[in-house]
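Subject: for your reference before the review

Hello V.,

The reviewers asked for a structural picture of the protein, and I figured it would be easier to keep everything in one thread rather than splitting it across files. Below is the amino acid sequence we used in the manuscript, unchanged from the supplementary table.
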Amino acid sequence: MLHKKFFSKFSRFRKPAALLCLFLAAYLAGTGVRHFTLHRQAASSKTILSAEGNWGLSFQQEGSAPVGNASPEELKQYNAAFVDTTQEKVLYLTFDAGYENGNMPQILDALKKHNAPATFFVVGNFLQTSPDLAKRILEEGHTVGNHTYHHPDMSQISSKEAFQKELDDNDELFQQITGQPMSRYYRPPQGKYSSSNLQMAKELGYTTFFWSLAYVDWIQDDQPSKEEAFDKLLTRVHPGAVVLLHSTSSTNAAILDELLTKWEEMGYYFAPLSRLEEKL
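And here is what came back from the structure prediction:
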């Protein structure tokens, strides 16, 4: 009797309980969808934010392209690149030129000997002090890119006007010296950048180029030995590499002819950055 009375009483609550269960299920499902949506939004935000700070590389395997702290796909939306995603043994030679200390002529001689096109990212100081070398770079078929006038940390520049002025002032000085406009190639000084900076450069018509192969060659009073340079530049070379060297390096000036020879013996050839630009 008690058994029947209990279930008789319980039956009065079955419909409300079922409705409550349905309500809870709907609420939890909605919460789950919202959580998943927020998770995707957070992941998307993280993807965008990964294209910030100091440019860095992680070499995973000898002979293969490194992993950058922003992927080729992420950079492409900003008309930017750090590597050519190809299996073809092509190299893109680039030099950052902040000032001239006697090494540029030897570097240009080596490039000419190998018929190797290069892009020189120059700053205002180099143009002011070495106008004849700026002209020679153009005369020998190389490209001149914009490395800004003052070489500041561009990631700290928030206004488009200030950002543009750094590029325009450098371009105007170059035109005064050579009579030609600078190419619309931009490299952030010290590799410091932000996604907003990349967007500004894109809106100004620039292609931003980072790099996928470099070594510590910029400290004038602590230059690497030939063996140290080859250890990095020969073991880490890879198809589609954008090579960054500094024209201020006495080591680079001394080894460039031999370095280019060794790369050619490994089956590599040299192409201008315009070829990589066409793929963006």
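For the response letter, the relevant points are probably these. The longest helix spans residues 2-49. The CA atoms of residues 187 and 248 lie 17 Å apart.

Happy to draft the paragraph if you're swamped.

O.
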